[in-house]
């Protein structure tokens, strides 16, 4: 299989390295708005797979690709998704489909009209801990789940240029938690209440971007389950993603291991980690590999799509409701997804 990779930044380079190690991938065609960056990524993977560059992202579609991996900037996602659909190519795209609902719907309609495959990059669905928790929950091992607590914490704020185009902390970070909650429980979020805060040395940068460095959200699911989800850009202890599922029979915690960046206050508690997680690429490396392996199988027609693009619409609708709630300081009902 020849796979076109559009976008050779941090996540695009990581995906190219992963694809180069997967069976069934024979060639990568890499493109970026910066041709030198694309050439560097192609050179890095050339020892493991045939790799070449395309002169532009558009040229990838004319180079005989069998499938497309989209890792470009978010603003480019809708057009690239639509281009892949019109070319009849299966596509994997990093979340989100688009930063707003209208753009998301337009891209999804292109995919639906073409009848092509679009897999969205919610890598937590492929993480061993999240998978185990989902299996336990669906098997009834926790009994009735009454409370879920989710944590997403970055070790340091991203560059100001990224903040300006990220869509904000809720759309960029917490959207992963919204998707994970829906996927784990099989339930929909009906109402949200969100608050945000900013402080410290980076406050001015966040305020200029119209964003916050910390957010807390209360979600109500359609069966009454309560979910709290928090996110911050300022967790100096390290990169932390956890989820606690509390039920009448048991409580399961995803993301609690020897590298979780947390210090116990108990005298007999575990010591702080010697090597805390430093970022999402390290923490979720096996999940990213499993995610792209699943895409290759789906693109070959050997397995169903594990994360259709419409899943991104559902998560974005929750994020949009949270942004409204944060701005207006009130509970907000989540809009129903338009029919496919």
TrEMBL record:
4Fe-4S listed as a keyword: no
Domain Gfo/Idh/MocA-like oxidoreductase N-terminal residues, every copy: 1-121
Keywords carried by this UniProt record: Oxidoreductase
Keyword Transcription: no
Superkingdom, natural source: Bacteria
Domain GFO/IDH/MocA-like oxidoreductase, chain residue ranges per copy: 130-248
GO MF annotations in UniProt: nucleotide binding; oxidoreductase activity
Family classification: Belongs to the Gfo/Idh/MocA family.
PANTHER family hit by this protein: BINDING ROSSMANN FOLD OXIDOREDUCTASE, PUTATIVE (AFU_ORTHOLOGUE AFUA_2G10240)-RELATED, NAD(P)-BINDING ROSSMANN-FOLD SUPERFAMILY PROTEIN-RELATED
Protein name: Dehydrogenase
């Amino acid at each position: 299989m020849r796979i076109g990779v559009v976008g050779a930044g941090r996540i695009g380079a990581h995906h190219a390295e992963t694809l180069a190690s997967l069976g069934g991938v024979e060639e990568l065609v890499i493109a970026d708005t910066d041709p030198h960056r694309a050439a560097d990524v192609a050179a890095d993977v050339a020892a493991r797979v045939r790799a070449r560059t395309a002169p532009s992202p558009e040229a990838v579609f004319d180079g005989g690709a069998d499938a497309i991996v989209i890792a470009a900037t978010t603003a480019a996602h809708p057009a690239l998704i639509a281009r892949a659909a019109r070319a009849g190519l299966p596509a994997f795209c990093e979340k989100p489909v688009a930063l707003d609902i209208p753009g998301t719907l337009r891209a999804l309609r292109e995919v639906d009209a073409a009848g092509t495959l679009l897999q969205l990059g919610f890598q937590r669905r492929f993480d061993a801990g999240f998978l185990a928790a989902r299996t336990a929950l669906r098997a009834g091992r926790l009994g009735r789940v009454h409370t879920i607590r989710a944590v997403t914490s970055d070790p340091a704020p991203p560059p100001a240029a990224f903040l300006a185009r990220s869509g904000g902390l809720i759309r960029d970070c917490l959207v992963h938690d919204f998707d994970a909650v829906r996927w784990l429980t099989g339930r929909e979020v009906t109402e949200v209440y969100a608050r945000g805060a900013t402080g410290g040395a980076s406050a001015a940068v966040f305020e200029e971007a119209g964003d916050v460095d910390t957010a807390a959200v209360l979600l109500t699911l359609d069966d009454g389950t309560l979910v709290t989800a928090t996110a911050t850009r300022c967790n100096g202890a390290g990169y932390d993603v956890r989820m606690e599922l509390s039920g009448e029979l048991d409580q399961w915690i995803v993301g609690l291991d020897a590298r979780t960046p947390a210090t116990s206050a108990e005298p007999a508690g575990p010591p702080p980690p010697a090597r805390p997680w430093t970022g999402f690429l390290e923490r979720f490396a096996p999940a990213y590999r499993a995610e792209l392996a699943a895409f290759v199988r789906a693109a070959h027609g050997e397995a169903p799509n594990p994360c259709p693009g419409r899943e991104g619409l559902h998560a974005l609708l929750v994020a949009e409701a949270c942004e409204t709630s944060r701005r207006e300081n009130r509970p907000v009902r989540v809009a129903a997804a338009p029919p496919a």
